[in-house]
Write a structure and sequence with these properties.
2 domains, Beta-carbonic Anhydrase, Chain A, six-stranded mixed beta sheet, binds zinc ion
């Protein structure tokens, strides 16, 4: 995929392939969506939720941003894109599961580590990855062997904690209608690791 022509050619393959195999599904989806799972993933082109979970259109409600971060609940005015998607997923779609999915070699996580060394990161990226500051500082002060991977893991836990600061998320969890999960994808090996809610450790799914 290099040019608009490549994209249009890809669309033609979709029309003749995946779409024509799923005409009925698309007709049904044209009436509305009812996904049970929300995924919060990174923008990174290599960690594609629908591909990794082998999910069909209509099954995953996906938000992607730099470093798969969830900001804490804030009542200040502002353009809260992630919070708006979260509100819609939980209060309107009533998703049953939210998965925060990180990945290896994350540029957003690496930007957070660079910022700790006073290396310049982008104008918009810098304040965004500050969401990782507390996690990053604890990873660095613990002297992790591999701070990049460790922060990718700990940052997922931080986003899960931040999810629980939203009143409607907490209420849905307390009502037994919503569960939160963490996952981390090792790109080169194509392996998904699932976060243990008790220990915060990641286990390879077999
Ligand atoms: Zn990333």
């Amino acid at each position: 995929m290099h040019t608009p022509e490549d994209l249009q050619q890809g669309y033609r393959r979709f029309r003749n392939g995946a779409y024509s195999d799923r005409v009925r599904l698309y007709q049904d989806l044209g009436e509305g969506q009812d996904p049970d799972v929300m995924v919060i993933a990174c923008c990174d082109s290599r960690a594609e939720p629908a591909e990794i979970f082998d999910a069909a259109p209509g099954q995953l409600f996906v938000v992607r941003n730099v470093a798969n971060l969830v900001p804490p609940f804030e009542s200040t005015p502002g353009l809260h894109g992630v919070s708006a998607a979260l509100e819609f997923a939980v209060t309107a779609l009533r998703v049953k599961h939210i998965v925060v999915m990180g990945h290896g070699g994350c540029g957003g996580v690496s930007a957070s580590l660079s910022a700790a060394k006073d290396k310049p990161v982008g104008r918009f990226i810098a304040p965004w990855v500050e969401l990782l500051d507390a996690s990053r500082d604890s990873v660095l002060s613990a002297g992790a062997d591999d701070p990049q991977t460790e922060l990718e893991h700990v940052g997922i836990g931080q986003s899960l904690d931040n999810l629980r600061t939203f009143p409607f998320v907490r209420e849905a969890i307390e009502a037994g209608q919503l569960a939160l999960h963490g996952a981390w994808f090792a790109i080169g090996r194509g392996e998904l690791h699932w976060r243990d809610a008790q220990t915060g450790q990641f286990q390879l799914i077999t």
